[in-house]
């Protein structure tokens, strides 16, 4: 509050100040986002039907107990929803945290008077999948997918955040496994019925005009364009021209995704920042993908597990602000059975030392505008119900 006074716009924005990128808060003050993910009021524990009767509350026919909500009711009473957001706000302030991260409860977003980031979740759309490479992404060439991306900020469940001064910005999707250099294109070629493949077919016919020219360039022997368009077998021994075409359409598809998302935020929520899709793993090293994200995102988001941010400068990214949207240090001295996300020794003191070391490098990195800890509450020892039993 007693730092430099920059331009106040009433909403969060970014600015490079004295050689370092920052978020700027609605009042024009420098803001470094120290956040925590998944501030949820519900988590589920699956029990038998007899146990569900004993608890006297079942979420659904699967006998899943909302144990966090149940404990909040036991502590604060049935009116906990009016009490707990303020309890949470004071708790965040006492811990020195200033941002609610991704996957948090709408009640907390709306009532805690704390800056937040949130994901506009995309569902019910066709995906491009390469099972062999474990890569997948939304088919952004499909009209239904494009329509659903375009309407995300206007959906009733998201509308409250549009023009909210506490909302820093939006992610669209999370940790999309784009795969390696041409994995998206390979998945598209393996899906001749997809809208993405139809778009690629159109471009190839426009590029080569005659099937003989495509055969010569790719070293193939298609008898007609129809045969080529129905093929689902990726050429095994790619020529240089074939590989270039795969790479080109791979990048075009990824770029179309980021462009659609950026345009959606600009059109429907111009006062909020577009924070990307929370890139992860080999995305750090994908030069072309970094360049595309840097071109369209107001802030590029990465989930950066590790022990230092020193030298974190993804190739191709350019001089743009970066938000670290997931990090963690784990030990097993307090009841957790696993610490494999980012093991940091044996004790809570080891964990604290790792955190301090990480933040020293984080604050020195000129691109970084914040980091969000994963996560607010420990996962159930029996494994979180909705995704592979993770219990780190």
Report what the structure shows:
- With 392 residues, the protein is an alpha/beta fold.
- It is built from twelve helices and 15 strands.
- The protein has helices at residues 49-55, 67-76, 80-95, 106-111, 143-151, 183-189, 195-208, 211-218, 225-230, 240-268, 287-296, 348-364; strands at 13-17, 20-24, 30-31, 33-36, 44-46, 64-66, 99-100, 116-120, 127-130, 135-138, 167-172, 273-274, 300-303, 322-327, 368-373.
- The strands form five sheets. A five-stranded parallel β-sheet has the order 7-4-15-14-13, with helices on one face.
- A hairpin with a 5-residue loop joins strand 2 and strand 3.
- The chain is globular and about 75 Å long.
Describe this protein with a few key phrases:
globular, 392 residues, 12 helices, alpha/beta, three-stranded antiparallel β-sheet
Order of helices and strands: EEEEEHEHHEHEEEHEHHHHHEHEEHE
> How many beta-strand elements?
15
* CA gyration radius, whole angstroms: 24 Å
- Tally of DSSP helical segments: 12
Shape, principal axes of CA atoms: globular
Low-confidence stretches: none
Distance between the termini: 37 Å
Biggest pleated sheet: 5 strands, parallel
Strand line-up of the largest beta sheet = 7-4-15-14-13
The proportion of residues in beta strands is 15-25%
| Class computed from helices, strands and strand pairing | alpha/beta
């Amino acid at each position: 509050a007693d730092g430099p006074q920059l331009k106040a716009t009433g909403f969060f924005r970014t600015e490079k100040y004295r050689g370092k990128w920052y978020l700027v808060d609605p009042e024009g003050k420098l803001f470094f986002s120290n956040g925590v993910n998944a501030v949820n009021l519900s988590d589920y524990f699956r029990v038998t039907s007899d146990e569900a009767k004993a608890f006297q509350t079942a979420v659904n026919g699967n006998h899943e107990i909302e144990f966090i909500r149940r404990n909040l009711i036991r502590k604060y009473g049935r009116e906990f929803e009016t009490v707990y957001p303020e309890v949470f706000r004071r708790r965040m302030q006492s811990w020195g945290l200033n941002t609610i991260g991704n996957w948090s409860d709408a009640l907390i977003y709306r009532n805690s008077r704390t800056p937040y980031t949130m994901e506009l979740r995309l569902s019910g759309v066709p995906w491009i999948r390469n099972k062999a490479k474990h890569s997948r992404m939304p088919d952004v060439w499909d009209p239904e997918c494009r329509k659903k991306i375009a309407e995300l900020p206007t959906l009733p469940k998201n509308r409250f955040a549009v023009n909210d001064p506490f909302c820093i910005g939006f992610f669209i999707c999370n940790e999309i496994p784009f795969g390696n250099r041409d994995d998206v294109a390979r998945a598209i070629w393996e899906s001749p019925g997809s809208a993405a493949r139809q778009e690629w077919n159109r471009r190839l016919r426009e590029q080569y005009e005659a099937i003989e020219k495509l055969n010569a360039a790719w070293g193939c022997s298609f008898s007609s364009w129809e045969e080529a368009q129905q093929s689902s077998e990726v050429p095994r021994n790619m020529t240089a021209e074939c590989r270039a075409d795969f790479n080109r359409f791979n990048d075009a598809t990824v770029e179309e995704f980021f462009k659609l998302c950026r345009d959606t935020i600009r059109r429907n929520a111009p006062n909020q920042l577009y924070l990307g899709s929370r890139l992860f793993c080999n995305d750090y090293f994908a030069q072309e993908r970094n360049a595309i994200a840097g071109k369209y995102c107001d802030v590029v988001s990465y989930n950066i597990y590790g022990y230092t941010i020193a030298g974190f400068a993804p190739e191709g990214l350019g001089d743009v602000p970066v938000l670290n949207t997931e990090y963690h240090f784990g030990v097993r001295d307090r009841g957790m059975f696993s610490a494999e996300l980012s093991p940091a020794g044996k004790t809570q003191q080891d964990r604290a030392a790792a955190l301090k070391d990480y933040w020293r490098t984080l604050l020195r990195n000129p691109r970084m505008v914040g980091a969000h800890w994963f996560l607010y509450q420990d996962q159930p020892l029996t494994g979180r119900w909705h995704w592979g039993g993770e219990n780190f």
